[in-house]
Structure formats: structure tokens, C-alpha cells
Amino acid sequence: MKARAQGVLVLLAGWTACVAVAEAGTPASPPRTMADVIAASTPADWRPLEPENTLYLQLAQGRVVIELAPDFAPQHAANIKALARSKYFDGLAIVRAQDNFVVQWGDPEGKRSLGDAKATLPPEFTVKLTPALPFEVLPDRDGYAPEVGFSQGFPAARDVARGEAWLAHCYGMVGAGRGNAPDSGNGAELYVVTGHAPRQLDRNIALVGRVVKGIELLSSQPRGSGPMGFYEKVEQTAPITSVRVAADLPVAERESLEVMRTDTERFRQLVEARRNRRDDWYLVPAGYIDLCNVPVVVRPRP
Amino acid sequence: MKARAQGVLVLLAGWTACVAVAEAGTPASPPRTMADVIAASTPADWRPLEPENTLYLQLAQGRVVIELAPDFAPQHAANIKALARSKYFDGLAIVRAQDNFVVQWGDPEGKRSLGDAKATLPPEFTVKLTPALPFEVLPDRDGYAPEVGFSQGFPAARDVARGEAWLAHCYGMVGAGRGNAPDSGNGAELYVVTGHAPRQLDRNIALVGRVVKGIELLSSQPRGSGPMGFYEKVEQTAPITSVRVAADLPVAERESLEVMRTDTERFRQLVEARRNRRDDWYLVPAGYIDLCNVPVVVRPRP
């Protein structure tokens, strides 16, 4: 009996290994599945990662690729890049893995010099809504915000009445740890969401980007046994080989990835294919999709 | 700098290690945090696990405790217990770990005899709403169902107009894999949700219970590299030592756990403490809580 729980792949990690990348073209019938949508996509539906806003977190087990969100957290993004360029993170470690919540890395004791990077930063927890900020509204209602959707590929929320927008704590999003003081985060300690979206953190802490490849290297770390999932012994922590800005590496050493754009008709088709599953396994379509269930589609550049 | 991403523990796993279990009593002021609510709880706020509806999944790394939900999937629960009692699972393995989705165990090739257990079962994907079915409504709106809440401690949904209720695919919920045929699941292959709630599975597959202890042993498994996170080599799979019904073990070998009841004023206080965080770290209370963000509180029996 080959009973399997599901018939379709869901997430970024490992995704590209499993879906044949078909040539562009128009399908004979409307797309039924995410694979159909992707198979019908054209080069205009994709965008490359910008090397200047891409980080490589190198672990012994492999490389984690992080896309920064400078339009939402410009000072944090700049500080993190300054830290990476001073090799601040090299030799530090993953210090925390709390089940169904976050994995965190950095220097919790604060022993290492920040070099030219700033020790405190303004709380970039929300941004002002401006006409220049792209925002594609997801029609599905959300409990945590008046509107949710995507901004430059990132899951986001906005409140038009308050004139604010912010990134949403979905699986794979990366943020900058802080203490109780709102300005106490500086990007020297980063976390990634590895569980059900802790959306209560939205507007309370600076999200700085998201993992676009290799999240399984973080999410499968053994959970820490101390309070909040911190490891209790140094030998339990996974060392960080290096953190680099992609632009600083020779082209041959960069990841060649592209991300599906979120401001296209193709992406709307993809969302619809996930909102109402039409593959043979499903009996009841949900008729709804939660912001954090919309997949982030990343693949090697053809 | 001790910047940490959050100030409060969230989940069942490891939870009991971190919160001091205080004596019962009335707090001087209204509870601010989940820890306050638990500290003020009385024995009537808790219930023990029923040994006849508790499974122990024993791995080399430790024991996973699963609470079955016989009121929602009676035939699946009975079949799984029959399989456990025939030692069906002993020596099988975790065969799948798909990032941000599920971890699955069993016998995907179907080589092992099911013994007296049934090979197919009716699709127990929903149950009829009856006055006998407890259901505490969560006031917060939900996108996937007209109403959500808790039934006997399990996250659940209901549709009064259709006269149906069902369990919800939150983190830690356990289900029975099936093929495309609705009756092809039998409990011989089980999965646990280890990512953002895949609520689109609700009403499409039988949920049979949830993990109440040890989920980190499943969720931190290395992700499988094959399609849908299946492992590609036998040596990558984690062996299952045994699966047992707690009632079949001597009392001294059972876990002594209790679960916070969900049909109490105390639980409503706990939900409110999570809906609007009042601890010092938070700046903006969410004013909302997603069903799958309500914590399942489990602790050793005093």
C-alpha cells in the first residue's frame, strides 16, 4: 500500500529537485496545479536575486541563501552587510533552536566586536505606506492585519488607515533579535521562523529578509534543551563557517537562483491553484489560503 | 548584548522544563502571561491522558507521546491500536521528512502483514455535529472554517449549517496517510504536521490525534531528499523501536502527564494572554490569535 499523506510538494526547500522545469508555453487548459502554473511560466514571470541583497550563511552541512529586504529594514540590512563584510559571523554558531518557533544564530554573549557596524538601530518594525511601495493584495482575509499580500516577493501586511506596512512572520522569514528595548536589535543576532507563523511578532521586531534556499539545514537542527530552546553546551551549537554578501563572491561561486515574481497574473494563478487544489488527491477545496501558506517559488536559473 | 528574539516560550515540547509549576492560587492581579495563568491554575483545570488512548512511539532518541482522538476517528484509532498491539510498527521507520510540512512513518511499500487490522477504513474526515460533542468556540475568525475552537483539547473546526465538525491540521497533529481513494488510509502509515498549519488538508484526510510530548524528536529529523521529502536510502530512515498503547504497559513505565482542559475559564484566560501579549517584550498586542497559535499545555502530573 503506497498510502501517502499528500500529492503535491509545498515548499521552497527541495522544491526544485522535484518539479521538472518545463519550457514556457500556454497550457491547453487552465492550470490545475502549481506545477502546471510553473510549467506555463515565461521568463518575465521570474526575477533573479540581487547579489548585493543576498547573504550566504555557510554551515558545515551546506549553504543557506537569504534574500534581504532593504525596503522594509534598510538600516538593518546595511548593518548586517557591514557585519558580514567584517567577517563578524565567521566562527559564531547557531545558538538556539526552539521547536515550532525559531532557530537563531549569532553571539548572544556579545563578546565579539561589532567593528564599524552600529550597536543599536531604529526599530524598523513597520514602514510608511507610500505609492512607491509595491503591494499586491491577497483577497483572502487575515486575522492579524486589515490586508495582507506580497511586496517585492515578501509576505507582507498593511493598514491603510494607519498608513503602515510591514513584513509578516511566515515560515522562513528572517529577523533581527532584540532585547526589551525597541532599539536594541542590530542584526548581530538573527533568527529564522521554523514553525507555525508567529504572527504576533509582526510590528514588534524587525524582519530583515527570508531564506530562499537551504532552510532545511536550519529547521532540522536538534532543539536546544535550555529555556527558549537555547543550547546549554557549546558543543551542541552548530558552527557558522562564514556569512558573505553574494556580491562579494566571484560569479562562479554564487548561487544562480530566480524567484517567481508576485506582481504578475501568473502568480495570481499560482495562488488560486493553491487556494483550491484541483489535483486528484483532494476531495474538498479549501476556498481560502492563509498568507503564510502561499509558496515562495525559487528555482535555479535556466 | 543579550538580544533575544522573544521573551516567552510557546510550545508543548520542552515547555515543562522551563516554567516553574507553582502551587494553585489566585493571583493578586489579572494574569498577564501564560505562565501567570498556569501558576494560578487548580487541579480542576487539568486532565490526565487516558492510557487506552495514548500511544508511545519509541525511537532510539526517546519517546514520542501521542494522544488519540477516538471521538473524531474511532475506526482509525481502533485500527492503530490493533496494529500497535500486534507489534506492527516495531522495526519500521520514519520514511519521510518534508520541510515545513510533515514527518511520516510506517511501511510505504506495504510489505508487512496488517494482521487483524483492517486494510481500508471509511473516510473519517469529518464527524456529525451532535449535542454530545463538546466544542468551545474561539471568538477569533478563521479563513478555513465558519468556526474554530477546541473539542476535548484538540484544535477543531465546525460548520453548523452543514452539521459537521472536524479536527484541524495544526502543528503536532497526527493523521493517517492515504492514497487517492478516500478509503485507502488505515493508520498503518501516520504523519505529523511539522510546519505551518496545512489547513487545506482539513476534511481531506483523517486526523487521528496529536503529539503531546517529544515532537522535537520528529520535527528535527533530517529532511528527505526525494520527492515529497521521502528518504532515498534505507540508511537515512530513523528506525522505530516500538509503538505501544500506554494501557498495555505497567504503570511504572507510563508517562505521567496532564493536559490543560480547554473547557474552562482558565483556558479562556490563557488564550487571552496569548492573544494580547502583556509581557514586557511586546510593544503591539496582536488583538487576535490563530487557532494553531493557541498553545497546547502539557506538564508532568504533580
For the structure shown, list the relevant keywords.
homodimer, 302 residues, alpha+beta, eight-stranded antiparallel barrel, five-stranded antiparallel beta sheet, 5 helices, 16 strands, globular, disordered N terminus
Lay out the secondary structure.
2 copies of one chain form a homodimer.
Chain A: H1 15-18, H2 34-39, E1 46-48, E2 54-59, E3 62-68, H3 74-85, E4 93-98, E5 102-106, E6 127-128, E7 136-137, E8 147-151, E9 154-159, E10 164-167, E11 173-176, E12 190-193, E13 206-213, H4 215-219, E14 238-245, E15 257-260, H5 265-275, E16 298-300
Antiparallel strand pairs in A: 1-15, 2-3, 2-14, 3-13, 4-5, 4-14, 5-12, 6-10, 7-8, 8-9, 9-10, 11-12, 11-13, 15-16
Number of helices of chain A: 5
Question: Which chains have the largest interface?
Answer: A-B, 85 and 85 residues
Helix content of chain A: 10-25%
Stretches with pLDDT under 50, minimum 5 residues of chain A: 1-27
DSSP strand tally of chain A: 16
Assembly state:
homodimer
The mean pLDDT of chain A is: 90
Structural notes for this entry:
The structure is a homodimer of 302-residue chains. Chain A is α+β, with helices and mostly antiparallel strands and 302 residues long. Helix content of chain A is 13%, strand content 25%. Chain A is built from five helices and 16 strands. In chain A, the strands form three sheets. Chain A has an eight-stranded antiparallel β-barrel. In chain A, strand 4 and strand 5 (102-106) form a beta hairpin. Chain A is globular and about 60 Å long. Mean pLDDT of chain A is 90; it is low at 1-27. The interface between A and B is large, with 85 and 85 residues.
